[in-house]
Amino acid sequence: MVIEWRTGEDGQSGEKPLKRAAEYVRMSTEHQKYSTDNQSAEIRAYAARRGFEIVRTYADEGKSGLRIDGRDSFQQLLSDIQSGNADFEAILVYDVSRWGRFQDPNEASHYVWLCKSAGISIHYCAEQVENDGSMGSSIVTTVKQVMAGEYSRELSIKVFKGQCRLITLGYRQGGPPGFGLRRMLVDEHGNQKGLLDRGEHKSIATDRVVLVEGPDEEVALVREIYRQFVEDQRSERQIADWLNAQGIMSDLERPWSRGAVHQILINEKYVGHNVWGRTSFKLKTKHVRNDPSEWIRHDSAFPAIVPQPLFDAARLVIDQRSQRLSDEEMLALLADILAKNGSLSGLIIDEYEDGPSSSAYQSRFGSLLRAYSLVGYVPDHDYRYLEINRALRRMHPSIVKDVIEGVRAAGGTAIQNLENDTLLINEEITASIVIARCKLTRGGSRRWKIRLDESLRPDITICVRMDEENMHAHDYYILPRMTLAEGVLRLADHNGLSLDAFRFESLDGFFTLAERAPFRKAA
């Protein structure tokens, strides 16, 4: 929203003319207490004290500050400045976080630089330090930008952990219930409070949502879909045509498609399992399909509509479609799907008649991305990090083996716990080994994010930081338990003495620590 203010002429001669300024206000859905009205009131008080006249307002209401996408007014502000249409010489913002909570502080600084290069200064009205370009001001502003982005990261981690815990307790976390199921609102003691219709959400923080059986006729239809697919050997397309011929609509009030039937046949919620995290959408990044090992689940969380043996039989039929095809035949089918649709996705593949499912391609070729690459398709978004993560997981056992051999070569002992891959060194110290993928920021800086299993609580954590190609170890951090207060550790090239004091070019020093030294017996 952009508002152009009309101001009257200054009727008093001799007064210093007011400097023309624009105000930018933003409110995200997570921070309703910082309303745009409150921000504007503070900005106008600042303008009155500093001799500014606000001639234009740019307002993004209900917009996240994580990135520029979706912030139409912010984009319009930058466009006006870059095109030379800005009729003001300053921008007034409530504070650094309202400018944005960009995950890379370089991005926030880039937009500031665009404004300053056009001769337009930026004032953060609620901050204690003037944004005057001095060394002290630049340092404080950069720290504030990092803190603004870090707040969102920490909030994302906390929310994710909370959601994982609720899933393991059997509660539903978002999404439509599906045909034959309904969402039931329960209180903190598990007492049912009533069904939630489409578009309705819980309003009390302590309330939770579980899945329950829907109307009897829908439950019967779900079981009939499974029966026809397994016993009558009818395809998803034939079942969809049968449902549409009877005038039966899907749970979304739409005619049935092959993919809609297929989703019923592969979704574990119909056998009562609560599965979450198949895809991720963290910090406003694009949705990504997660590896099944990363899914969060609670089996038998709610009543099953379909018996487990019938569900397994349906999945067996779907899996066997690809087992009778060679790799070349599967790729030929995938190339045909690409030619007909112009793009590929899991949903597009699942809609293809009598072809293998997207999960079959993932199982056969290791991932959908590898299957895409084999037919010459490159998705718009770069998902290569999924392949890198899988390669690093395959690398982990060899690194553990190298550590064990290094400790033993130094004269110590190392015993591996096969359940969690931790090491017991010299029968005294427990150690865990984690590998961190290297990621390059837009500015070319290297970043590493290390996920720690807080349930292990080892005495020492060996963090292996990979190089830019993620092929070889760049360096190592040997961190004692006392330095690890959080479950996620984010590292840059330089992290301050509190962390870099534990950085090593190799593990030779660690092996030396494991060496056993003989002592003379006391007389």
UniProtKB/TrEMBL annotation:
Recombinase domain ranges (all copies): 200-324
Domain of life per record: Bacteria
Residue intervals of the Resolvase/invertase-type recombinase catalytic domain: 20-174
InterPro entries associated with the record: DNA_bind_recomb_sf, DNA_bind_recombinase_dom, Resolv_N, Resolvase-like_N_sf, SSR_resolvase
SMART domains xref list: Resolvase
Designated name of the protein: Recombinase family protein
Source organism: Sphingomonas canadensis
